[in-house]
Every structure is written in structure tokens, then in C-alpha cells.
Amino acid sequence: VQLQASGGGLVQAGGSLRLSCAASGRTFRSDAMGWFRQIPGKEREFVASINPSGFRKNYADSVQGRFTISRDNAKNTVYLQMNSLKPEDTAVYYCTARYGNNFYSRAWRDYNYWGQGTLVTVSS
User: Fold this and answer.
1) CB 56 within 8 A of CB 116
2) Measuring CA to CA, which residue among 34, 61, 37 is closest to residue 48?
3) How far out from the chain centre does Cα 31 lie?
4) CA-to-CA distance for 116 and 124, rounded, in angstroms?
5) Is the CB of residue 5 less than 8 Å from the CB of residue 23?
6) pLDDT tens, 103-112?
7) Phi and psi (nearest 5°) for 66?
């Protein structure tokens, strides 16, 4: 099973990026998926999660109103649209999935599968 994240890069403050995470080896259409981020020396931080159908979403307060999580179950892919980026959004972003439809958890230990991470750098 593999989660392949892509779409990171360097962007100026106020700009936008769209992250993608394609899953292979297993279908995740019945599982919650999400995104976390991490900067060196700090614990992995919850960003957003989405339920299996894609109709229910959960966001960290720091990204609410700026980021949008979505998924395409036919493509086994989850996305993170990031708008109005700020320097404090700079981090390695990880996509993740957990068994079942509980998408409320914000604890990284509750998630079962992880992608390799993609770096997002926001310059001021």
C-alpha cells in the first residue's frame, strides 16, 4: 500500500498550491483520509480530514477558510487546496488514511497509512 503525495513547492505569501495524494495497493473509499504537516523539531500537526463519502470535513482552526480538502474515490485520491498561504504554513505535508469512517480524530497516532511527504515553502 502506498500513498504518493505531490504538488508541494515554493510560493509567495498570499499564493495558492494544490496538493494531491494518490493511493495504490488498496482502495480507501471506505476510509477517512486527511492531511497533517510537520516542521523540524515539532510534532506532526493536524491540518484537515474528510469522511469516506467526501461530504463531511474537519479543519484545524489555523487553516479554516483558507484550505479545502476533497477526494475522488474513483481515482483513489485526496486533495488539499491551499489558498492565502502564509509563511507559517511552511512545512512538510503528509497525506494519511485510517480504517473506517471516523474522520474526527486529530491525533496522528490514530491514522494507519502515511505518504512520504511533500514540502511546502511559503516566502514572505
Assistant:
1) no
2) 34
3) 14
4) 26
5) no
6) 899 999 999 9
7) -115, -35
For residue 23, give the nearest of 93, 105, 111, 96 by alpha carbon: 96
Query: Vertex 69, ends 66 and 74: CA angle to 5°?
Result: 155
- Residue 103 near residue 58 (C-beta atoms within 8 A): yes
Angle CA 73–76–80, to nearest 5: 85
CA distance linking residue 88 with residue 13, whole number of Å: 10
Range 13-21 average pLDDT: 98
Listed in sequence order, the residues at least 6 apart from 41 whose beta carbon sits closer than 8 Å to its beta carbon are none
The Cα–Cα gap between 34 and 63 comes to 13
Pairing of strands 17-24, 2-6: antiparallel
Residues 52 and 101: beta-carbon distance below 8 Å: yes
